[in-house]
Write a structure and sequence with these properties.
By secondary structure, the protein is an all-alpha fold. Helices cover 73% and strands 0% of the residues.
């Protein structure tokens, strides 16, 4: 059996963990009609933190970089629009 490789973990506050555990519980009840125990909720949350959160975080960074780059291009265009004909 191969050992699972863990990505850097995203840290959540206790309040965030509680809210997400409630969301997991509600999802299982609403979508699957099943009760899910606290241990299963915690295990799913831990899995999401380890595997999914870093991917989502990196995507958000890439999106922010693209937004920033576009804003800088706009600023440069605005700068040159201020030039006067000589």
């Amino acid at each position: 059996m191969r050992k699972r490789e863990y990505l850097p973990q995203i840290k959540l506050s206790d309040a965030q963990k509680k809210k997400l555990n409630e969301e997991i519980k509600a999802f299982y009840l609403d979508e699957r009609g099943e009760e899910i125990g606290m241990i299963e909720q915690m295990q799913l949350l831990e899995l999401f933190q380890q595997k999914m959160a870093p991917i989502v975080y990196n995507k958000a960074l890439d999106d922010a970089k693209m937004w920033y780059r576009q804003m800088m291009e706009n600023a440069e265009d605005d700068y040159y629009a201020l030039y006067k004909d000589e």
